[in-house]
C-alpha cells in the first residue's frame, strides 16, 4: 500500500502522520513543492518581526523528525498531473526532470495561493501550474505578497537590504494585522489600508473598532473604506520609494483619493484555493472553486482524497462553504490519512473558530455572526456584554467585549465574538463557546456549564456565561416571565 | 407571594436575584446572619494579602445594588427555626429580639461552617445554633479559623496588632494555599502543614508536587504527611508566640514528631455543611450530613427549597455527593429562586470544576480522578502530557502538565487535571474539558472540536487536544490499529 500525499503543509503532513501512526508498515510519500515541509505559515509574521530568531524554528517538525516517523519526503517537487485511471502522479523536479510516481491512495493537499487584487502596477506571479502571470512591481521592487516561505525570504531580503522606514500593508485581516504589528515591532512606520468599514472585517465593526484603536495606540495609521488602486515607483524608472494610490469612500458615498509614499508594500488580502491539479484530473469543484469532498474527505475520483485549504469546508452551521484554516487542515488531513488506509472517519465540521493577537489585544470568534446566520436561514439576534475577565477587586481586571449571537426561534447559540487584553484568556474562552456550539447548546443552557472560578482568573458566572445571560435577558426574559405567569395561572 | 431566602451568600442572593428578575412584583426577603450580604468569601485571601485595599470591595454587589433590585435584606439576623406547617420563620436579631417572618416559599442557603480538626488546644467556636463549643486557643491568641467576614476581621486584627513574623497554615487545600501565598506576600514566613502525601490533595500527587515546588520557590516551608496534634502557647500563660506540635509519617510508616514556633496559626482544613436549621425542621440529610434535595432544589418539606454549600450535590458522573463550590451555589440558588416562583428548572449537575492560583502557577481540575472514577464503577486510565501553551517558536511558551482520565471501556472522557504558569490560559482550558464532559464526549472525540489557534496563544491542535490524543494513543491506538487491519481484511 503506497499512500502519496501532495503538499508539505498541514493537510498533507497530517495525513501522512496519521497513516504512519495507524499502520507502521504503510509506505507513505509526501510530495513537497518547496524545501519547507511542515512549516507553520501562521508563524511567518513573528519571524518577520524578529521575535522568531531563525526561520527554521517555524517548522512544526524538522525534516529529520518527519523522516523518523517512517514517511518519505520528496522536496522541491511539483505535482503536475494526476493520472487517476493509472494511479500515477506526474512530478517535475526543480531541475525540470519529469518523473512518474505510482500510488494506491492519493491525498491532495495543495493548499491555497495568495489572492492578487486588481491593483494597477502589481505583478501577479500566477500559480505554479499556469503560465498566466502579470508583469508589474514585485519583490525586487519592495512590493510583496506573503503566503509561502519563499515569499517570506523575499520580504526579509527587502527588510535587510533596504531597511525600509515606512510600509503600506494592504488588507487588515489576520495576516495583515499581524504584519502591521510585526513591521511596527521592527521600527517601521506602518499605514494599514482596508477596503471594509473597519479593520478585522471578520468580526462585527463594534469589535473591529477596538482593534483599530489598539493599532492607533501603537502608531499604526489605519485607513478603512479605502481601496488601493495602483502602485508605482515614486521616481519613475528608479528603484526605491513607492507611491500607493488609493480611494476612500465616506459613509455618505463621497470618494476622496490619496497617495501614500512607502519603502515597502505588502499585499495581504486573502487566499484562494489551489485546486487546479485536482480539477485537471476531473475533480468536482465547489464553493469558491475549492475541491468538492465529502466528510470522509473523498473527492469522488477513485482513491483520491483531498484536505486542507484546497477543499470545500463542511461547516456545522452552514453546510458547505470555503473557510481555510490551519486547524481545519490538520483535522481533515488526519481523517483523509486514516480513510486512505481503509478507516472510517468523518470530518466533524468546522465552526470557523479563529483568534488573533494584535499588540496587547486578542480578538476571537466562533460560529456565525448575525448576517451570516440570517443568510443561513436562522432568525438571529446579537447582544454585547463587557464583563471583566476576573473579579474587579483583584488587581489587573480588564473587560472583555463579547458579542453573542443566538437564534431567537430555537434559543440555540450560533456564534460568539470576543475582544480583550492579552492575559484575559480570550483565546480559550472562545473555545468554550465553540464546544457549546459543537453540541448545539442553547444560549440559556450555557448557564448550566460548570466552568472554573478563582477571583484572579474568573467570576462565579464566567464572562462566557455573563455574556450569554445578557443575550437571554435581552431576547428571552419577556417570554420566560410570560411562561412563569402562565404556569402560575 | 413572599419568598424568603435564608443566607446572604451565593445561594440565597442568587435565588433572590432570579426571583426578582422573573417577577418584578415578587416580595423577596433575604435573611442574613451577619452584616455582609453577597460577599465573595473566595476573595478573602486577597484582602488578607493586601491586594484588595478595602474589605468592602469583596462584595459582589453593594447593599444598595441589592436593594435596587427590589429585594429586602434583614442583616444581623439569625434564622433559628422553620415552622414548616405554619409557613413561618423564627428569627433572632443581634440584640436578642425574637420575631417571626411568614413566608410562602423558603430557600435555605445556610452554607457551610469551617471544619474544626481534633487538635489539642484549638478552640471550637461551634455553630450558631448549638451550645457545644470547645474552649482553647482562638483569635485572641492568634489562632484562627477562616470562613466568614468575621473570621477575616479577626485575622486582620492579629496581623495589624501583632505584625506576626511567622505563621503556620494548617491545611494545603485551595484556601490554605491561597493563604500561604497571601501571608508570604505580606512578608510573613509561612510553614504549610498538610496531612496528605502532597499539597493540593484534590489533584494527583504528580501535579501536587509541582505546586509544592512553586511554594518552595517562594519561600514557603512545606510539610506533607504531617498531622498537627496540638497548639499551645510557647510560654505557658503568656500571650504571644505559639508552639505547634505535629507528627510526620514517612512512606515507610515511621513517625517523627516536630514542634514549630509561630506568631500566627491558621487552621483551614475544609468545611462542613450547615444543615442544622433544615434538619431540625425535618429535612432529610444526605452525604456528609448535607440537606437532601432533588435537582429542582426541593427539600421534600412543603415549599422549602435549599441550595448551596448546605445541600448535597448532584454530580454528572457521580450521582449525589457533597462538593461545595461557589459556582455551584450560584447555579443552585438561581434554580431554587425560579422554581420557588413556580418555574420548572433543574440543576444540571456539577463536575467539580475548580481552579486555584498559587503564586505564578495555576492548577485546575474537572470531572473525576482515576480513583474516584474507579469507585464510581468506571474502568479508568490516566495519561499525562506536557504540551506547550503556545507554539514554542513564539517567545514565552511554557508547558502545561495535563492529566486526562478516560474510561477504557467506553472511551468516555471522565476528567482532566492541569497545572501551568499564570498566563497560560489554564483556567479556561479546563473549561473546554468541563464542557466536553458535560456533553459526554469521548477522549478521542476531543480531536473534533474546533478550538482557536494563533502561534502566540495556542497550537493547531490545542494543548487540550494534544493531552487527549496522548491518552488515546496510550489506551486506544492498539485497538484502532487492529480495527483497521480487520477492516482491510
From TrEMBL, chains A, B:
Gene Ontology MF, one: oxidoreductase activity
Domain of life according to the entry: Bacteria
Family recorded in the similarity comment: Belongs to the class-III pyridine nucleotide-disulfide oxidoreductase family.
Protein name (record): FAD-dependent oxidoreductase
Xref: Pfam families: Pyr_redox_2 (PF07992), Pyr_redox_dim (PF02852)
Keywords recorded for this protein, A-Z: FAD, Flavoprotein, Oxidoreductase, Redox-active center
Residue span, FAD/NAD(P)-binding domain: 2-333
Required cofactor(s): FAD
Pyridine nucleotide-disulphide oxidoreductase dimerisation domain residues: 356-458
InterPro entries xref list: FAD-bd_OxRdtase, FAD/NAD-bd_sf, FAD/NAD-binding_dom, FAD/NAD-linked_Rdtase_dimer_sf, Pyr_nucl-diS_OxRdtase_dimer
